[in-house]
Amino acid sequence: MIHPATELRFVNPVIGYGVFATAVIPTGTIVYVQDRLEHVIHPNDPIRQDPAYKAVIEKYSFRDEAGNYVVSWDFAKYVNHCCHANTLSTGYGFEIAVRDILPGEEITDEYALFGHEEMPLLCHYADCRQHLRGNDMQVYGRSWDTRVRQALQHLSQVSQPLFPYLDAQTYTDLMTYLSTGEGYRPLLADTWHAETV
Ligand SMILES: [Zn+2]
After folding, report:
1. Of 1, 112, 149, 159, which has the most beta carbons under 10 Å away?
2. CA of 14 to the centre of ligand 1 (A)
3. Residue 44, domain member (yes or no)
4. Is the pTM of this model over 0.70?
5. Centre of ligand 1 from the C-alpha of residue 116, in Å
6. Centre of ligand 1 from the C-alpha of residue 6, in Å
7. How far away, in angstroms, is 82 Cα from ligand 1 center?
């Protein structure tokens, strides 16, 4: 589920739709959470190879921590990539604002954290990476994780309309980490953490 202070807008014919903030969304706010209404497709589910569904799943899904393909039931699936994304995925099944997002600003994600295959990237920054690459996590994973940890420090100080959609265990783990500094869940731990520590 996407944060309620957002709306879907048509950007242009190349990019298609995007999701935009309708109010200030401060650093540390949960902007998206994988709630219980999401469509979760197991990697071995034959629907992934069904010609009628394959392209749709590839276009609109992201990979969760377990490797499943998740297709959002709401317009969260229209959040676009940016090489300077204002939200990042966490190991807690949600995306967090890593800086303050202003009204009218587009909500953006780092697609490398979604387990996407290699794909062309399009953002308006001069240092756009141009392509999503298989080793992005090895190159950038640590700095993304640092930004997530910094944003998590603000989590308890800002309004969290998506808190009711966190599962109980995730909420407990999160609060334990924030109060003790122990038990942090890194994002996509199996793909980069073991190789970089
Ligand atoms: Zn870019």
Report:
1. 112
2. 15
3. yes
4. yes
5. 15
6. 22
7. 5
**Count of domains for the chain:** 1
- Cα–ligand 1 centroid distance for 120 (angstroms): 9
> Is residue 51 one of the residues assigned to a domain?
yes
**pLDDT tens digits along 85-113:** 999 999 999 999 999 999 999 999 999 98
DSSP per position, the chain: -B-SSEEEEEEETTTEEEEEESS-B-TT-EEEE--TTSEEE-TT-GGGG-HHHHHHHHHHEEE-TTS-EEE-SSGGGGPEE-TT-SEEE-TTSEEEESS-B-TTPBPEE-GGGGTPPSEE---S-TT---EE-TTHHHHHHHHHHHHHHHHHTTGGGS--TTGGGS-HHHHHHHHHHHHHS-----TTHHHHHHHH-
Domain at 141, CATH number: 2.170.270.10
Output the CA 30–ligand 1 centroid distance in Å.
Answer: 23
Report the separation in Å between the CA atom of 175 and the middle of ligand 1, taken as the mean of its atom positions. 33
Q: Is residue 179 part of a domain?
A: yes
Q: Which residues form the domain of 186?
A: 6-196
Output the CA 66–ligand 1 centroid distance in Å: 26
Encode pLDDT of 30-88 as tens digits.
Answer: 999 999 999 999 999 999 999 999 999 988 999 887 889 999 999 999 999 999 999 99
Residue 92: inside a domain, yes or no? yes
Residue 46 alpha carbon to ligand 1 centre in Å: 33
